[in-house]
Specification:
Layout: H1 8-30
């Protein structure tokens, strides 16, 4: 699994961006 180490930051950034996007889209629903 050493080969997949370079993709780790990409997956982390993708997950973080997706979480922010979901929070941003759900804002008008809550307020």
């Amino acid at each position: 699994m050493r080969k997949g180490r370079g993709l780790w930051p990409f997956f982390m950034a993708k997950r973080l961006a997706w979480q922010i996007l979901v929070d941003f889209l759900s804002l008008p629903i809550y307020y």
